[in-house]
Amino acid sequence: MRYLPLTDTDRAEMLDVIGASTIDDLFVDVPEAARLDGPIEGLPLHASEMAVERHMRRLSKKNLAAADAPFFLGAGAYRHHVPASVDHIIQRGEFLTAYTPYQPEIAQGTLQMLFEFQTQVARLYGCAVANASMYDGSTACWEAVAMAGRVTKKKRVVLSGALHPHYAEVVRTMAKFTEDEIAGAAPALQAQPDNDGLITRIDEQTSCVVVQYPDILGRLPDVAKIADAAHEKGALLIVVNTEPVALGAIKSPGELGADIVVGEGQSIGVGLNFGGPYLGLFAVRDQKHVRQMPGRLCGETTDAEGKRGFVLTLSTREQHIRREKATSNICTNSGLCALAFSVHMTLLGEKGLRALAAENHRLTCLAADRLAKVPGVTVLNDTFFNEFTILVDGDARGIVRELAEDGVLAGVALSRLFPDKEDIARGILVAVTETTSEDDIDALCSALKEKLA
Amino acid sequence: MNAPNQSGWKPSAPVSHDGAHEGPETVTGNRALMLEEPLIFEIATPDTTGVDLPQPADDISSRLGGLKRDQAIGLPGLSEPETVRHYTRLSRQNYAIDLGLFPLGSCTMKHNPRLNEKVARMPGFADVHPLQPVDTVRGALEVMNELAHWLITLTGMHGVAMSPKAGAHGELCGILCIRAALEARGDARKVVLVPESAHGTNPATAAFAGYEVEDIPATKDGRVDLEALKARLGPDVAGVMITNPNTCGLFERDMKAISDAVHEAGGFVYCDGANFNAIVGKVRPGDLGVDAMHINLHKTFSTPHGGGGPGSGPVVLSEALSPFAPLPYTARTKDGQVHLIEEEGANAFSNEHFGGSMQSFGRMTAFHGQMGMFTRALTYILSHGADGLKQVAEDAVLNANYVLRACEDVLFAPFADSGPCMHEALFGDKNFGGDLTTLDLAKGMIDEGYHPMTMYFPLVVHGAMLIEPTETESKAALDQFIMALRSVASRAKDGDESLKQSPYYAPRRRLDETQAARKPLLSWIDGDTA
To answer: Taking the model in full, what pTM does it have?
Structure first.
């Protein structure tokens, strides 16, 4: 077996040193009745690297890769070009096969990277402090809600109807167990987000208001106005961002008054991966909230010779120290995805991120204008960044499915996201990035034209 | 039993650290291949970029509704050569499994096969969107289902929730399944029992799920005190969280009796599967009465730790808990087709194919789980097969016992007399001379070229040192590690004060953690970000 270095001679010698006659002498504490004699039945035996690769390739070929079709899916996961050097760096064994940096003297590589990552995220979000990552955007969103409860000591959570429904479902699921009260609303298919409707639901018992920016339909809510309304009632504003590239073109949530900013970082460096692993981002605008944050934090310090170095810090918030009084139970987070994000962001820099955002927006405007000309298609949004909603004359879900059969991945049918809301069965969420060519846009337009004719 | 010193190593005088070997200071601060590296904020400029993108036109029609960014972000940029060099230099300041033995107890730092990495990057897995129409992702669903089948079979359980993102997320999933099952029968229990030796995530998880946490007492030989546990069980106890093998590296001999007692009292048994590597293919937790157990794919099934994640924590479930599993999940029907079950139609599907209603407690994450880890773990599992996985457990346990017996004469081994350990060897600081501590020994191991063992955990042993060599170490590698550990342990025993300043040879000397916590600097601040 290629991953096991011990030879039978080694094993015999080692048993001898231990003073055991067979390997089963070392398993004596396992009750004999439960011990298995041979390999578990019904499962295949070991296989060569070549055989395994062949099997996995066969499974991989049964999927339609995004690069092989005009591709327009978004809704919380976006396809972007990731420079080749990103994947090269995350495959360096010193990063790939390292553990959480609990021994800082021999983990400065990971720690300095995390410090740089935290700074990049904080600046992107317009915040003072970001943590060293969460699992993904949806779990970061719940952690933010839980944190707001700790800060405000209130239990009522107001969710925007245009929050990603899977994020809302994660919050609702967790709140069932923490007895938080969730006030949600159905999304309405209209050109503008219902800022005022959301504001009227904020009251004195509200711990936090959760707004997605850009929202699930691609629209841009009036975050500053909602922030003022939340703060007036003593509530925190949590802004959720699922497309970090957008923040190269639009004002940061922190600048608009968000108290906690969370999001999905997958767009930068990580890739689609059929939904995971992704990268949860978590930041607070004001450093005073830092001790209520979940997750790991990396901080600067000095070593015994006075040299600058980095360590994990404020760990008295965390489970391995505080146990049942911890701010979260999170342990392993998304370290390697944070590295991918940080490398990609360093390659982009200020200039590159802004150019990337501009290119995304330019192509998206172009796609919206061309789609608007297709008979039977209406573009819903007044505002958007790189994603917008179209309404089609027909069953959107069926159309998306049929277009996929024709080799066009047209977008996400809203009924996939909101299965119980019949009024939005006509909607399709269309995302456009720098990876989308004008030919792709034309392919989508003509495919829709044909279906709707 | 006393083991001979396999390596033939003999203690010598402590190494002198008076600087005799040190050369002149360098102007760069570098020392040959040990290179200092500034922060990106100190070397980059806002105008540099390592990507080629069209420059935006000034007059693009904007649909940003007055929210166009008008302030600088403050992001530093580097060209590609500068970027590659920056991160390559940083990488060299890290210890890693690729560099040497990584004996962190309860963390299972085994070799990460590179075929896993190759497979995970196949476009059909890496470049697929989670919301593509199901007919375009049949292969991805088959991966999930094939892995699920292995996990269920290896553990002897009934079902598996694949979506949890890491071990602690899996724990939460398991506890929420228990809570949902209790609530479904109108049973509002309040307490979860957790042994003192448990990972911190266990009590944190139970508290996060709304439970009060109480300790389970341990016996002198490092295991759950069955009689004390039985005495505490009652109508207020929702369940127990037990790690097996436990964090003392010992198998809970009474596991079946514990499960039976908990079930009899109407509760459920959660097993922390962090240490599954010791028993994979040797015993099925399902045969011991476990109701839920998370599996760290990044431990037992070799997906890389990546400097702190991503992990993956599928949860195997008993028949009693399976109906409460979170959405989404995959299921294979009699026709051989693998389905993805999301909120829509979950009940109808369950009724049609499984003759019962689904009572999922909800959703734990936006999408389907850690696909990138599923492909890696399945690749690893298929490589080993049922026979290889059994050998994995045996070699892991053999290696740990070898370390235990080769060092028990120089390090205090609290449970060594009670029999063999499982996959990890536990030592304490009882024999140390002077005021030397476990931390000093750990930092001494760094100078010998090793990542230290897990320190001060489990809490039940003073100055605990938990060593898990894993099965991917050769005998020669173990002998060298033992030689180093025996040397540093002897120095600790002799009260060698020079250990207090170790490490001497790492990229950094001991770092001031108190200063870091007192005045937290968590973000780079410069004067020119505007």
So the answer is: 0.96
